[in-house]
Structures are given as structure tokens and as C-alpha cells.
TrEMBL record:
MPN domain residues: 103-225
UniProt name for this protein: DNA repair protein RadC
Superkingdom: Bacteria
Family, similarity comment: Belongs to the UPF0758 family.
Pfam families with a match to the protein in the record: RadC, UPF0758_N
SUPFAM superfamilies linked: RuvA domain 2-like (SSF47781)
Keywords for this protein: Hydrolase, Metal-binding, Metalloprotease, Protease, Zinc
KW Hydrolase (keyword) present: yes
GO molecular function: metal ion binding; metallopeptidase activity
GO biological process, one term: proteolysis
Lineage, highest ranks first: Bacteria, Pseudomonadati, Pseudomonadota, Betaproteobacteria, Burkholderiales
InterPro entries referenced in this protein's UniProt entry, alphabetically: MPN, RadC_JAB, RuvA_2-like, UPF0758, UPF0758_CS, UPF0758_N
Record carries keyword Metal-binding: yes
Annotated source species: Ramlibacter albus
Length: 225
């Protein structure tokens, strides 16, 4: 059913203005962004199909512009650009929240942040979150990309960046495009090498998080640190 044919109090825009954004479902919120559907599919049905294709909002947050292009009705640039912009704003808002509070106030906060930034990448990216003495995020930097091995991630560079930020501790992170979040032998060796290098300048490795689409694992929680 087209939005215009819905009762006034059931139309997403009017419902949002009258009752607040929290009153809308994920489908209704996405429909507001999409605005129009296709000739054979109303915007609500289109929004529902998009969420189903990407396994909900979390999956959509990780989708790339090229992924969205495969959805019927999102082949044009305008809607895709708006969705990508909104998703990037969501990632930046999460980063800003983490800078304003203790990262480990909730154990899932840092994992959610890293998933939002790294899980959608098509190649491996190694990043470091630099923390102050109160466990608040100072910055996150993507330092290396490509296939990660002990030799392609340079401990010296990580140490220099930690000193630059005056970090008290760090969270190491990288993604596995394969979809598995099981630490490999190379991940274990790299973690220990960086832990030893950073210990020389009194910087602690708080965790090494491995992320993939929709999941993440903490090497600290698994006892690797």
C-alpha cells in the first residue's frame, strides 16, 4: 500500500512528528529515508526487503554503496548516497560517544564501534584504538591494510603512534573478510609481539578484537592476553 493511502496517523512521517522517532519500526524509519518505492513495490515493502537482505540494521550499517546498488530500486545514485551518508553519520556518532565516556563502561561498546568501522571492508585492515588513563578513547587509526602477517604489521609504527597520542593502553583490532572471527596462529603471534613492544614504553594492550560481518571476538576474553 502506498504511504499516501495509509491513515494519516499511520504514515511514518506524521507518526514520527506526533509520537517521536522511537514509535517507528526499523522498516518505517528506513522508509522515511527511501521516500519512494518502485512501480511494483511500495516504499514500506522496499524498506522491509532491504532490511531482510542485509539481516537488519546492523548489516545495513556495514553495507557498501556497491552492495546497495544490487537492490532493485537503489540503482540510482541519490538514494544510495543518502543511505551511505546516514550510515557514516551513525559510525561517527558512535565514535564521538566513545570519546566522551569510558570505553569499557559496557563491554560491547568497543566491539560495536570496531564492527561499524571495519567489518564491511573487503580486505584486512589493522587498526589501533588509543586509550587514556581513564580508558577513554583518544583516537582510532587504521595503520596497515592488506593481508596481515607478523611481518606486515610493524610494531615500531604502533609504538610511535602510541607515544604520539600519549596513550596509556591500546585496543588492537582487525577484520576477517572471510567471516570467521577465530584467532589464527598469526593473530596470536602478532598480539604477543605488539604486547612486548608496547610494554617497553609502558603501554598496555587491553585487547585485540577480531571482527567480521555481524560478529566479533575478544582475544582478551579468550585468554590470549
Amino acid at each position: 500500500m502506498p504511504l499516501k493511502d495509509l491513515p494519516a496517523d499511520a504514515q511514518p512521517r506524521e507518526k514520527l512528528l506526533a509520537r517521536g522517532a522511537a514509535a517507528l519500526s526499523d522498516t518505517e524509519l528506513l522508509a522515511l529515508l527511501l521516500r519512494t518505492g518502485t512501480a511494483r513495490r511500495g516504499v514500506l515493502q522496499m524498506a522491509e526487503d532491504v532490511l531482510r537482505r542485509f539481516d537488519g540494521l546492523s548489516g545495513l550499517l556495514h553495507a557498501r554503496a556497491d552492495d546497495l546498488k544490487q537492490v532493485h530500486g537503489l540503482g540510482g545514485t541519490a538514494k544510495r548516497a543518502e543511505l551511505v551518508a546516514v550510515m557514516e553519520l551513525a559510525r561517527r556518532a558512535l565514535a564521538q560517544q566513545l570519546k566522551q565516556r569510558e570505553v569499557f563502561a559496557s563491554p560491547g561498546d568497543i566491539r560495536n564501534f570496531l564492527q561499524a568501522h571495519l567489518a564491511h571492508r573487503q580486505h584486512e585492515v589493522f587498526a589501533v584504538v588509543f586509550l587514556d588513563t581513564q580508558h577513554r578513547m583518544i583516537a582510532m587509526e587504521e595503520l596497515f591494510s592488506g593481508t596481515l602477517t607478523h611481518t606486515s604489521v610493524y610494531p615500531r609504527e604502533v609504538v610511535l603512534r602510541a607515544l604520539h597520542h600519549h596513550a596509556a593502553s591500546v585496543v588492537l583490532a582487525h577484520n576477517h573478510p572471510s567471516g570467521t572471527v577465530q584467532p589464527s596462529r598469526a593473530d596470536e603471534a602478532l598480539t604477543q609481539a605488539l604486547k612486548s613492544a608496547l610494554a617497553l614504553v609502558d603501554v598496555r594492550v587491553a585487547d585485540h578484537v577480531i571482527v567480521a560481518q555481524g560478529k566479533a571476538t575478544s582475544m582478551a576474553e579468550r585468554g590470549y592476553l
